[in-house]
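chain below, 223 aa
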Amino acid sequence: MTSDTTQAGAAPYSSNLFLNVYDLWVMRLSNSYAWRCNRQNFLDLYNGRIGHRHLEVGPGSGWLLANADLPAEVDLTLSDLSPNSLKHTASRLQIPTTLIEQDVLEPFAENVEAFDSISLNYVLHCLPGDWSTKAAAFDNLAEKLKPGGVLFGSTVIGVDQRYTLFGKALMTAYNKIGAFGNWHDDLPGLEKALNSRFEQVKVDMIGNVALFVAENPRATPRI
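prediction:
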């Protein structure tokens, strides 16, 4: 079951116009001038961490996958609430791809096999609620990681941040329309949610963006 507020965060990706300008608006302009974390930082996060069997949650326009160093013969799965985003990314990559229309706050089907790597880029700040709600995404994804697998991703932090004027304007507008839900997302809360579920966690702040890497899911999460 998917809530209306979860759907609101995915709504922009149902527009072909938005996906067509995503590379310019999000990857170039917003990252560099609103959040002060340029696109190379995301490629550095991806490169070397994408395993043979990889799950990309919230692929957006597919820019990162199209520009990252993918393993040869990668077994790629895309997951998103927006079927439009899934089709757009799969068409752009032009490699065999499995598509799953899925709310990351809900458990994945049992027949979805585990992955070597899972990425969660710019998804958490689009989800509704605080970390007690959003952390369900970590639980659901940890269940689909192979032993030795890695979860990595990024999110715009909403608490105790100094934004550019552009960033402040975007934060206000996006949260008002429901595209973002991160006014209460703090860095300590993110770190706590990850550390309670994974034995190895690294979180770096670049501008207003938290870039995280988590490995070795705990057998019993410490809530």
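Residues 16-34 form the longest helix (19 residues). The chain has one domain: 4-217.
thats it, cya
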